[in-house]
Amino acid sequence: MIEFTFWDILRNLLLAARWTVLLSLAAFVGGGVVGMIVLFFRIAKNKWSRRIASGYIALFQGTPLLMQLFLMFFGLPMLGLRIEPWTAAALGLTFFASAYLAEIWRSGVDALPRGQWDAGASLGLHYLQELRLIILPQAFSITRAPTVGFLVQLIKSTALTSIIGFEELVRTSNAINNATFEPFKVYGLVALIFFAMCFPLTQYARSLERRAAAQ
Amino acid sequence: MGYGLDFGWLAGATGAIARGAATTILLIVVTTLAGTFLSILGAAGRRNGPVLLKRVIGVYVEVMRNTPFLVQLFFIFFGLPSIGIRLDPILAAMLAMTLNMAAYTIEIVGAGLDAVPRGQTEAALALGLRPRQVFVKIVLPQALKVIYPALTSQIIIMMLESAVVSQIAVRELTYEADMLQARTFRAFETYLVVTMVYLILSMGLRRLLVAGGRRVLGAGVS
């Protein structure tokens, strides 16, 4: 039997935490890109386009992330792609994030006064220019706090990918726990590492909120 | 690709799915009641309690909000026995869900308490009500009315999050799905069906909560 010292445990957990960070970043960036597309559909003038986007958002916000990950994991092979925990995890979290980010940004677009659109139109801008130059920059800027807040939620959500076999922080901690039988210490450390990642972001989101409220 | 969808197994699986859904509903009912109660105590303590209590509640909220639910669940189920607290899977799940939900709803309830004008308390005290009566009869009902929509969302988020407790072998909806797919080898179809059950549950729960809120708290609740 191999002896694990405290430092062995911590070192292995920190090494595994890199994958948590990487997955969070990949899902945030991917979710941002797909979320933009969903946002375009969600605020389009066409009624059906808006309905489809609302349905997409309701679907992802109304079902457990764990189920979405399972469907990715077992559904991708049916499309002829190889089962790989990383792909399923990254894609699953990307779609999950896209629905939430689209909804957050949509609330920003809705919060802008109608006059912003009218002013854009009166300057002779067409729809895409209005969005790019006037609407979206303002919508992003007023939704910065909830966007950072969602990033915290996304980082915590990566823990679920351990269940479909992605080797991140929680999965590694399960393995270490099985070898050391010290669940109190191991899961306590895992919680601490997640806290160290999330708490600064939570504080940042809070300061953004305060700044927005002060304006 | 020679893979077609097959739902032939579904006829023999409705019992298991219904049992799982019933356990999920039980979990969320207990969590909602215990979590709301705990968060009312927590929010009141954070506003009017002694300094030490305020600190403890503050730390509790931050720790729960900045760590994953799955890790909290594992800590409670696998970690606590090593200091002599051994819990059934279902009790561990209820405890973890309640503690997790309370961390979010303490802030929600707190915001509601702040939204009630100070004059309400003063008027009630002037009428000779005791401080506890003022809180329970005057401030709290008004606060709950303000925060009801946020509370509803949190309950639904918690219901969806409860899928995770299948990992400590609580026989709820996701656990039954895991068992079914192991038996039928129809993983995608099984999870598809169960995902739809979750969707129906969450939509139904939202409707029920909105209707119940209108009834109990009066009109204007959405």
Task: Explain briefly what this protein structure is.
The complex is a heterodimer of chains A (215) and B (222). With 215 residues, chain A is mostly helical.
Describe the protein's architecture and organization.
The complex is a heterodimer of chains A (215) and B (222). Chain A is mostly helical and 215 residues long. Chain A has helices at 6-42, 47-61, 65-75, 85-111, 114-122, 127-142, 144-157, 169-180, 183-214. Chain B has a single domain, classed as MetI-like fold, CATH 1.10.3720. Helices cover 77% and strands 0% of the residues of chain B. Chain B has eight helices and no strands. Chain B has helices at residues 14-48, 51-65, 69-79, 89-115, 118-126, 131-161, 173-184, 187-217. The interface between A and B is large, with 39 and 41 residues.
Give the topology:
The complex is a heterodimer of chains A (215) and B (222).
Chain A (H helix, E strand, L loop, with lengths): L5 H37 L4 H15 L3 H11 L9 H27 L2 H9 L4 H16 L1 H14 L11 H12 L2 H32 L1
Helix pairs in contact in A: 1-2, 1-4, 1-8, 1-9, 2-4, 3-4, 4-6, 4-7, 5-6, 7-9, 8-9
Chain B lengths: L13 H35 L2 H15 L3 H11 L9 H27 L2 H9 L4 H31 L11 H12 L2 H31 L5
Helix pairs in contact in B: 1-2, 1-4, 1-7, 2-4, 3-4, 4-6, 5-6, 6-8, 7-8
Core attributes:
heterodimer; A: mainly alpha; 0% strand; B: 8 helices; transport (chain B); transmembrane helix (chain B)
**Which structural class should the secondary elements of chain B be placed in?**
mainly alpha
Number of helices of chain A: 9
Averaged pLDDT of chain B:
92
Indicate the CATH topology of chain B.
MetI-like fold
Count every beta strand of chain B, where a strand is a DSSP E run of 2 or more residues: 0
Low-pLDDT ranges of chain B: none
Main pleated-sheet profile of chain A: none
Q: Measured on Cα atoms, how large is the radius of gyration of chain A? A: 21 Å
Please bin the fraction of helical residues of chain B. over 70%
Overall 3D form of chain A:
globular
Sheet having the most strands of chain B: none
Report the sheet-strand fraction of chain B.
under 5%
Q: State the CATH class of chain A.
A: Mainly Alpha
The SSE order of chain B reads: HHHHHHHH
What's the tally of helices of chain B?
8
